[in-house]
Amino acid sequence: MTSLKKTLINSILYFICPFLLSAQNDTIKYDLSALGVVSSGAYSPFWINSKQYGKISDQPFGTDVMVGMNKDFSSKKSLFDYGFKADALLQTDNNQSKVYFHELYAKARLSVFDLVVGAREEHLGNQDSTLSCGGFLFSQNSRPMPKISIGIEHFTAVPFTNGFLEIKGALTHGWFTDNNNAQNVFLHHKYGFFRLGGRHLFHFQYGLDHVAQWGGYIPGLGQQPTSFHDFKTIFLGGSGGSDALVTDQINALGNHILSQSMKFELKVSEFAMNLFWQNISEDGPIKIMWNSMNRYDGLVGFSIRNKNFPIVKGILYEFLNTQNQSGPFHDQDGIVYGGTDSYFANGVYTQGWSYFSRTIGTPFIFNKYNDKYIQTNNRVQVHHFGIEGELSGYQYKAMSSFSKNYGTYSEPINIENTSVMLEVKKHFQKLSNIELGFTVGADFGKLYGNTVGVLFSIRKTGDLFHY
Fold first, then answer.
1. Strand pairing category for 222-223 and 255-268
2. Radius of gyration of the chain from Cα atoms?
């Protein structure tokens, strides 16, 4: 064998062997947890039950017991990898109990491409993962939805750009299984993001999310179009055919929302500073976010994180405004202005942008068709603050939100509300590696009523077996 052939074979083995070997030494983990909530008011405090993936009830008293097992992707690089998770949740509140799979999914990765089937908790959007009040379009506020998703879920360097240009994106089909008014409704979601910067200190990213509720049986309106041709129409945001509702023939088929996101990142040594902006559009024509009709609306946030000062690991400020909605008039005197967007509400899918009675987007917007409220509130202004860190092994997180709530253009209100929360957790390694948690939250104002509540939690995780 010539030296050239030996060199070539050795080079191939050098790159392939790590991929093959990293598929070994997998671990199945278990997760056991229990919590209890006690509150003084008609509901548990806003920041105790919100942005919890629907796991914690908004009722004043409740308990959760969760049992689960999972296998995550390996921390090492591999050409192929897989994982799964199954969490069974027993939730008791208001003298009622229910058991369901909170998360149940399988996932696989081939090179940079991801395939996920099932219901899982997701962090979507460019907001801070722990301190944010929640993304505008996706906020971790509702129960995970069963979906099939395929794409590149994490920023991946584009070849021949030396890592300067990174992209991610995916296509998702989901099912609204809550059957809240409309039944068997589909979810369409696709997104695409790019990030510039590579190894430089400064990064810039921009992305688009497009979601649509479509299909399903609507009481009083009948079965909505669900053919593959209709899927293509939904994908492109086109208007419906002759079998669609008259409004969907004039406008787009289904209930569409488009969100644009922009983020600036600066990393200096162990410090990271982020400035981000998110907005949504529910009417066409779609323009770049700073030229859109509702450019005064959106979620703007700034955060600082560091690794050298654990007492304060992160601080955040966010401002959410949804008052403008492209103006107070949709049409007047025969002129169409395109205003009164009434975010997350829809005349056909009256449950709006929600799942199991919880808003999928920012929790500060709620719909009167959900169980808890009698008044739609989608014109809000919110100042939100967050801080987290660690002191003597105790991890803490504190959040406070000050909101002005104006209802809708057609049904105005004027209510101020304050919601605060302090969470403390600690791992006790000598006590079978158990984590204990304590959270106190409070609401002040007429929106939810004055209330104070506490949450106690205990959690144990570990390795079930290796293979």
1. unpaired
2. 24
Burial tier of 447 (Cβ tally within 10 Å: 0-12, 13-18, 19+): buried
| Nearest-angstrom CA–CA distance, 367 and 255 | 15
Output 204-208 pairs: Cβ under 8 A, ≥24 positions apart: 204/262, 204/263, 204/264, 204/265, 205/126, 205/261, 205/262, 205/263, 205/265, 206/260, 206/261, 206/262, 206/263, 207/126, 207/260, 207/261, 208/258, 208/259, 208/260, 208/261
How many CB atoms within 10 Å of residue 159?
A: 8
C-alpha 300: how far from chain center = 16
Is pLDDT above 60 for 215? Answer: yes
Both structure tokens of 253:
């088929």
Per-residue pLDDT at 16: 41
- Model confidence at 338: pLDDT above 70: no
Average pLDDT over residues 384-410: 95
How far apart are alpha carbons 270 and 305 in whole angstroms? 8
Tens digits of residue pLDDT in 404-454: 999 999 899 999 999 999 999 999 988 888 999 999 999 999 888 999 999
* Calculated CA dihedral for residues 261, 265, 382, 279, nearest 10 degrees: -10
- Cα 464 to chain centroid distance, Å, stands at 29
Strand duo 27-39 + 61-71: pairing = antiparallel
Comparing CA positions, the residue from 192, 209, 210 lying closest to residue 254 is 210
Question: Reduced to 3 states, what is the DSSP secondary structure of residue 247?
Answer: helix
Is residue 294 scored above 60 in pLDDT?
yes
Question: Which residues, in sequence order, are bridge partners of residue 417?
Answer: 403, 445
The number of beta carbons lying within 10 Å of the beta carbon of residue 66 is 18
Query: How far is Cα 312 from Cα 439, in angstroms, rounded to an integer?
Result: 18
Q: Name the helix (H) or strand (E) containing 9.
A: helix 3-21
The pTM is what?
0.88
pLDDT value at 249 more than 70: no
The residue among 233, 209, 252 whose CA lies nearest residue 361 is 209
pLDDT of residue 203: 96
How far, in Å, CA of 141 to CA of 310, rounded?
A: 28
For residue 245, the 8-state DSSP code is -
Q: In order of start, what are the domains of the chain with their CATH numbers?
A: 26-215+254-466 (2.40.160.10)
Spatial separation of the C-alpha atoms in residues 232 and 254, rounded to whole Å = 12
